[in-house]
Amino acid sequence: MIFSRKFIKRKGVKIAIHPRKGESFSMRLITLGGKGEDPRGMEGLTGLTASLILHGCMGKPYSRIVESLESTGTSLYFSAGLESVQASFWSLRDFAEDGLAILRDCLSHPDFPEEELEKEKNRAISELRRIWDEPEEAASRIFAGKIFPSHPYSRLETPSSLSRIERENLVKRMEDIFLASSTFVALAGEESLVEKALDLLLDALKEGERNFNIPFPQPGPAKYYFYLKEKAEQVQIRMGHPSFPRNFPYYEEAVLMNYILGGGGFSSRLMERIRAREGLTYSIRSSFSPMLRAGLFSISTFTRPENTARAIEAIVDEVRRIVREGVSEEEVEKAKSYYIGHFPLSLETPSQVSSLLASMLFYGLGEDYPEKFLDKMKKLTAEKINPVIGQVLFPEKIITVVVGNGEALHQLKKIGEVEQVLTDKEK
Amino acid sequence: MEFNYRLEKTAFSSQVLLIPKEAPLVSFQIWVRAGSRYERPGITGISHMLEHMMFKGSENYGPQEHARRIQEMGGEYNAFTAHDKTVYFENIAPEYLEEVIKMEADRFLRPRFDPEEFLREREVVMEERKLRTDNSPYGKAEEELFSLVFQAHPYHWPIIGWSSDIENFSRDVLVEYFTLRYTPENSFFVLSGKIPENALELLEKYFGPWKGKRPRDLPLPEEEEQKGPRRSEMEMQVQAPFVFLGYLAPGYCHRDFPLLSIIDRVLTEGESSRLWQKLVHEKGLASRAGGGLYPMADYSLFFFYGVSAAGKDIRALEEELTRQVERAFLRERELYKARNQVLAETVSSLERAYYTGLSAGEGYLNCAAPSTFVKHLEAIKGAKPEDVMGCWERILDHRKRNIVLIRSIK
After folding, report:
1. Hey, which of A25, B64, B112, B403 would disulfide with A189, CB 3.0 to 4.6 Å?
2. A154 and A231 both lie in a single domain
């Protein structure tokens, strides 16, 4: 075993434990149900619910809750993804129990005070406005909203959807998530503390299991989206399409292929061509983000306005080439060597281990996943990878998002029909 | 707080800081006294440009080959340039240490600085500058704040350099700068984590022929006392106007630095911090607010910021931000909180060999004492409220205020 771990099930909750001596305690809790389920017109509901859990519980106000946590150097935050809500906890050993007691109180009895909801809604609306000021954030936001065409995973919160959300919606949403049989907990720390932590946490979860019936998103036709920033001296580019979910049987094959294409820094083909050979950018990377009910392939880079068309065409060309020609044995050996060497190095801290354990539980990867992953990696060859490429990359179905100035728009129009995006303020 | 280290000197006159600790890896770091403070107008950003060129090949390795080899080991590598230093690092499984040292020695002793690669990389650096500064309102505001706070000292110019300097870099200047600064006496090594027993022998074996003295640097100007507030306003394409606020503070080794760290935690750390509670939560003037104490060798920059909330006046935000920052008072529970926060951060960074190496390296570089970060923690534990207050009144004084305000283009 690469690291010690044990798995138990209590009150229906699946739990992974990494016993470890040390001065800190780390815990991840993931529950099924995320932003992808927000009702139409009420996008932002799960995100607001997650961020308001600590804004008052059992009559204790938000300011006192954060004061209690931060007074001991404890870090606790809730975040909402498309398919889950996650609580991340880290504390000094001696303060773990105090912090976990707060977590229990807030998970079991969140107050969701009206006043706090109003404040947080206003803040979220302000933040939506700020996003457009940073080209990188703007590009990523547009991409998230376009990548899964007519699918709930691409419906994003807007000022109007946020303003529609009422306290009763939060209360109802909270009742619907954090159900014991759909919740997963990973802990790393001293065993005596782990026991106490479990007693506190399991107390806070309601019995039950939830359904998660999201239709699987399919790639659509290639499209080009553009957001104008007149003064921008640089163009942000995001490209991609829907791809495979986490339970895809050829996950490792796809991961290795992506390392060769654009995941492997200076070892990747995209970096070699777009940065080193053509000098079009400072950085470019591609990645797969597989989830339970969807997956995503994406490429991210930036360039000068006058190089917009050239960069995009070169990127598509590389994607087409890897689909057409596959990867070589030499490339595969180098990529394997990276993953096999890197995996043990990435498990240095309790937080890194608890984070891996939590995703193993959430995606049902099996208790021996770390060993199986390495084992499978060792056996992969170009011959095994090449037939998979056409199942995960679709060069003719790439969605392209560009944020830049008038010259960038002019360039983009040379490649295809462009749809211009407006911010809520501009509409 | 357990922190053990050993300091050794190699035959080729470099210091080596060894920090053995339980870890699946060893973090190998080379610290060079090369950074923007050692530059002059006309060549600002040359330290950073040189860092880029160090990845462009050496006698026995092609461009980026070094990086590719580290990746094949499953390791992490990179380098960063700051005001007072350039740091190169590799986090790798211990069995690869010899190969890593061999590669590092090749580029430190025999770099290529290929003229064509140089011209191409200059373009890449220009793009990096656009990404981080010219195209980012926050990057631009930060650059402006440094220039406002530091009027005499080289901290005045940005680490990446002014655009026109980058455009005019010549390879000759780069080589000259390299020859002067990348010497064994002007650099030191840090090894943190699972250190192989023969680590020092490996350094002697590959870096043995490395020669060169520590350059005799001329004294740098000191900042004159600021007699009144300074401000700079810029119009940009932003929907959310924001304000940056900065004050000149003493450097990392100064006895007041730990006291300033306390004030920093009180004002800016987390959602219970004063700025978040007052500006974001209570008054709703900002959608986010915070700041930090940016440590450097000769001075530090104490900075704060607020991003205006939708429909709120930026002037009202500026007024409230400065009021909160310049109002010196400390509650007992805030002192308690700051102590625990710093303790937690220290424990957390000691969980990783890489961060442990960085913390110790910072202390050695600036204060000739690798355990400075532990001493800071002790000083924070023993700090008296009246000392913190004295420091607060001296540093966060309204006459010493520097404001950068970013408004929307009308």
Report:
1. A25
2. no
Among residues of chain A, what percentage have pLDDT more than 70? 100
Interface test mutation site (partner B, options A137, A342, A346, max chain B beta carbons within 10 A): A342
ipTM: 0.94
A198 and A227 assigned to the same domain: no
Is residue A214 in some structural domain?
no
Report chain A residues whose CB lies below 8 A from the CB of B124: 275, 279, 281-282
Contacts of B63 in chain A (CB under 8 A): 276
Q: How far is B95 from chain A (nearest CA, A)?
A: 11
Residue at A212 is within a domain: no
Q: Please name the residues in contact with B163: beta carbons below 8 A apart, sequence gap of 6 or more.
A: B126, B129, B134
Please indicate, yes or no, whether residues A194 and A229 belong to a single structural domain of this protein.
no
**Domain final residue, candidates A170, A204, A238:** A204
Residue B134 to residue A338, Cβ atoms within 8 A = no
From chain B, the residues in CB contact with A237 under 8 A are: none
According to the model, what pLDDT value does residue A2 have? 87
Distance separating alpha carbons of residues A22 and A94, to the nearest angstrom = 11
Task: Give the start-end residues of each E strand in A272-381.
Answer: 284-288, 296-303
Is the domain of A402 the same as that of A266? yes
CATH topology of domain B6-207: Cytochrome Bc1 Complex; Chain A, domain 1 (3.30.830)
Q: What is the pLDDT of residue A213?
A: 86
**Phi–psi pair at A286, nearest 5 degrees:** -125, 155
Cβ of B135 within 8 Å of Cβ of A347? The answer is no
Q: Which pLDDT belongs to residue B410? A: 74
Residue ranges, comma separated, of all CATH 3.30.830.10 domains in chain B are 6-207, 230-408
Structural domain contains residue A216:
no
Taking the CA of residue A357 and the nearest CA in chain B, the distance in Å comes to 18
**Tens-place pLDDT, residues B329-362:** 999 999 999 999 999 999 999 999 999 999 999 9
**What six digits make up the tokens of A356?**
């891996």
Token pair of A167 as six digits: 């306290």
Which segments of A177-244 does DSSP mark as H helices, in order?
191-204
DSSP three-state, residue B310 = coil
Please name the residue of chain B whose CA is at the shortest distance from the CA of residue A229.
Answer: B237
- Closest chain B residue by Cα to residue A404: B135
Q: How many H-runs (helices) and E-runs (strands) does chain A carry?
A: 16, 12
A101 in any annotated domain? yes
What superfamily in CATH does domain B230-408 come from?
A: Metalloenzyme, LuxS/M16 peptidase-like (3.30.830.10)
Among chain A residues, the shortest Cα distance to B55 is held by A266
Q: What are the C-alpha distances in Å from B150 to residues B48, B230, B264?
A: 20, 11, 20
Q: Do A130 and B137 touch (CB under 8 A)?
A: no
Question: Domain range spanning residue A241?
Answer: 223-420
Look at residues B320, B315, B316 and name the one whose alpha carbon lies nearest to residue B304. Answer: B320
User: What is the DSSP pairing of strand B402-408 with strand B230-236?
Assistant: parallel
